[in-house]
Amino acid sequence: MSLAHGRHYLAIPGPSVMPDRVLQAMHRPAPNIYYGALADMTDAMIPDLKRVACTDGHVAIYIANGHGVWEASAANVLSPGDRMLALCTGRFGFGWAETAGRMGVEVERLDFGLQAPVDPARVEERLRNDPGHGIKVITMVQVDTATSVKSDVAAVRAAIDAAGHPALLMVDCIACLAVDEMRMDDWGADVVITASQKGLMTPPGLGFVFFNARAKARRAEVETVSMYWDWVPRSEPEMFYQYFNGTAPTHHLYGLREALSMLHEEGMENVWARHATLARTVWAAVEAWSQDGPLAFNIADPALRSHAVTTLHIGKEHGPRLRQWLTDEAGVTLGIGLGMETVEKRDSDGYFRIAHMGHVNAHMVLGVLGTIEAGMAALGIPHGKGALEAAAAVCART
After folding, report:
1. What is the pLDDT of residue 364?
2. Are the CB atoms for 112 and 97 separated by under 8 Å?
3. Is the residue at 1 inside a domain?
């Protein structure tokens, strides 16, 4: 007998759980795509979207996933032969670098490994060794979804300024916008990218590029940008279709409108605080389990962990069995180990990830923790006691 019957729960770091309000908003006939209510709704949604990133700048919306906005952002500020410095933590910094490289950009990578954030001191040192300011753009990932490490955007901006370097700072917030605190303007990011399927609680398919006046000025220097990726008409449309370079993603827009309403009804400060508390709830359980057994955090220092996802190592003899048991017997899917392969250690199967992003609350997180403990007990995986009590105590202190 399986206990998995009922609504399946995806505890993976995107697509995140979609609220009923979002699903219901999307459940309607196709609208007029030329003018009228849909166009008015989209115009009114732009300020609410920018409020999530804490910016007074501009935003372009793409029918694309996160990989799409990697390319869209690079296409507007870089030409073939330009130089880019990619600050790579975990897996996804390398992905953005590869995308730019395939576009003819000369990419230099600073690798910070799988268990550490970007080191601002190394960034400053590298930029001081670029006296001719040949580096045009610096990219970083605020939260690497594979490793769950969180880097300090404001500290990286301070390092760039200390070096007196004019390069643009571009930040991938795909994993963490509307989850971990992000203050684009205050922290000095010139470009921020994200996608719809994580903190924005909307199905995959929309990508967003926020950019400020410095990035806009850089766009004017780029000789050729394809019609599809060009952010100018998308951010300053004269007609509705220019938002999307064609047919609008109608039902995604309805869902996004409802998701933004939910975020702002709660308030961004409260959204960030809720995610911080739920992350600590997960961490309290893991700390207890790790006292006796193989389970361990990938990121040891809580200050360096994301509030969106927690990456854990349990050993490749246990990881696949535990994930499969949870899916088959409890109706819960955990995130797989991703990008944790190294020359010395080929062990992605020994990892799993617990997402706590978007439309999540205490009973959802406590439920996932309870099923993980049940799975370890059923499979005879050693683990410390008192995890669920410790997790509940974190919720009780809010």
Report:
1. 97
2. no
3. no
**169 forms bridges with which residues in the sheet?**
138
Quick count: other Cβ atoms within 10 Å of Cβ 119?
18
The residue among 265, 298, 328 that closes a domain is 265
Residue 332 corresponds to which tokens in the numbers above? 């819960």
Rounded-to-integer distance, Cα 114 and Cα 367, Å:
29
pLDDT value at residue 345: 59
pTM value is 0.96
Q: How much is the average pLDDT of 261-282?
A: 98
The overall longest dimension of the chain from CA atoms, in Å, is 68
Residue with structure tokens 């997960």? 282
Per residue in 354-383, pLDDT (tens digit) is 999 999 999 999 999 999 999 999 999 999
Are residues 49 and 77 both part of a single domain? yes
Mean confidence (pLDDT) of the chain: 96
Strand order in the sheet with 83-88: 58-63, 206-211, 191-195, 168-172, 135-141, 83-88, 106-111
Say if residue 210 is in the same domain as residue 101: yes
- In eight-state DSSP terms, residue 240 is G
pLDDT at 343 exceeding the cut of 50 = no
**Distance between CA atoms of residues 368 and 376, nearest Å:** 12
CA dihedral (220, 222, 226, 230) positive or negative: negative
pLDDT score at 339: 79
Q: Give the burial class of 201: count Cβ atoms within 10 A of its Cβ; 0-12 exposed, 13-18 middle, 19 or more buried.
A: buried
Residues 329 and 362 in one domain: yes
